[in-house]
Amino acid sequence: MQQSEYYEGDVLAYFSERPQELALYEEFSAALDRMLPEASVKVQKSQISFYGRRLFAAVSLPYRRKKGWPEHCLLVTFGLPERLDDSRIAAAAEPYPNRWTHHVVVSRPGEIDGQLMAWVRAAYEFSQNK
Question: How far apart are CA 129 and CA 73, in angstroms?
């Protein structure tokens, strides 16, 4: 993936004192890099954003936790043209007609699986064609 020269330091700063979340992020980032090496990544204050032509996914630390969420987890966010109906979707919203934002809670490396990555790939393809 394309990244700035400060990427590694920015990632370490973003996850400072959160080693379990950093490990999950590294797993997700590696899977995304294998799937979409042409994508780019940018570390921001509140999230780490992934771009093709446009933003298609993000990873963030959940600062507002819903009851029952694990103590150590990441939120993987992506956009699709339709709402997904799956138990793994923690929240979904339609900020614009036919643009659904989905949030998936990831607390174990095994949750970075084919299904999640297929959703992220579909989000990439959707963002490329907007």
Answer: 31
